[in-house]
Design brief:
The complex is a heterodimer of chains A (114) and B (112).
Chain A lengths: L2 E3 L4 E5 L4 E3 L2 E3 L4 E8 L5 E7 L5 E3 L5 E5 L4 E6 L8 E9 L7 E2 L3 E6 L1
Parallel strand pairs in A: 2-12
Antiparallel strand pairs in A: 1-4, 3-9, 5-6, 5-10, 7-8, 8-9, 10-11, 10-12
Chain B lengths: L3 E4 L2 E4 L4 E8 L5 E7 L6 E7 L2 E5 L6 E7 L2 E7 L7 E8 L7 E2 L3 E5 L1
Parallel strand pairs in B: 2-11
Antiparallel strand pairs in B: 1-3, 3-8, 4-5, 4-9, 5-6, 7-8, 9-10, 9-11
Classes of the chains: A mainly beta (114), B mainly beta (112).
């Protein structure tokens, strides 16, 4: 079984500031890792994914994440946020042996203020 | 075409009504999913279809009935719902079962 912990339920930041959204996972097997974004009243959009290879993953909208196996973390970062980045961000994990189970964290609400 | 579409966007129904939600993708994906999302919560998996066959039912009440008429379409038939079933219903697809999901915009369901 796997689990995902998003350490912050809310993160307020000012426009053009850097941001880091934290995600830790636990699993007894190797995993795939994902970040999804959900804008108000919309579905989920895949921001980026880690499947294998380079531990630094670049996604859409200037976001990137780093897979750290020893710390079982997959933190999401952006060097300079915009008002339009205000959204709910979900970290998710699926283990490489499971065909169906995608486990989500509880989400982090990023609010970018002017 | 790289998207999952869902209709309707909003649906209000009474507890005795029968309605259906529709999901469509034209990416050639062979797995399709229904999720339920309550406010300020992550999505919860309801059903998985793999190669047009129901492969996972996460103990969903029988008042929700999924159907996969073909590889591009996924329906969710609703009957005798309860007010607590009000939620955002998300459809998703993936190229193969277990791969990353592409989500649709969802149907916002309100049960009166």
């Amino acid at each position: 079984a796997q689990s995902v912990t998003q350490l912050d339920s809310q993160v307020p930041v000012f426009e053009e500031a850097p941001v880091e959204l934290r995600c830790n996972y636990s699993s007894s097997v190797s995993v795939y890792l994902f970040w999804y974004v959900q804008y108000p009243n919309q579905g989920l959009q895949l921001l980026l994914k880690y499947l294998s290879g380079s531990t630094l993953v670049k996604g859409i909208n200037g976001f990137e994440a780093e897979f750290n196996k020893s710390q079982t973390s997959f933190h999401l970062r952006k060097p300079s946020v915009h008002i339009s980045d205000t959204a709910e961000y979900f970290c998710a994990v699926s283990d490489r042996g499971s065909n169906y189970k995608l486990t989500f964290g509880k989400g982090t609400l990023l609010t970018v203020n002017p | 075409d790289t998207e999952v579409t869902q209709t309707p966007k909003h649906l209000v129904m009474g507890m005795t009504n029968k309605k259906s939600l529709k999901c469509e993708q034209h990416m050639g994906h062979r797995a399709m999913y229904w999720y339920k999302q309550k406010a300020k919560k992550p999505p919860e998996l309801m059903f998985v279809y793999s190669y047009e066959k129901l492969s996972i039912n996460e103990s969903v009440p029988s008042r929700f009935s999924p159907e996969c008429p073909n590889s591009s379409l996924l329906n969710l038939h609703l009957h005798a719902l309860q007010p607590e079933d009000s939620a955002l219903y998300l459809c998703a697809s993936s190229q193969q079962p277990g791969q990353w999901r592409f989500f649709g915009p969802g149907t916002r369901l309100t049960v009166l």
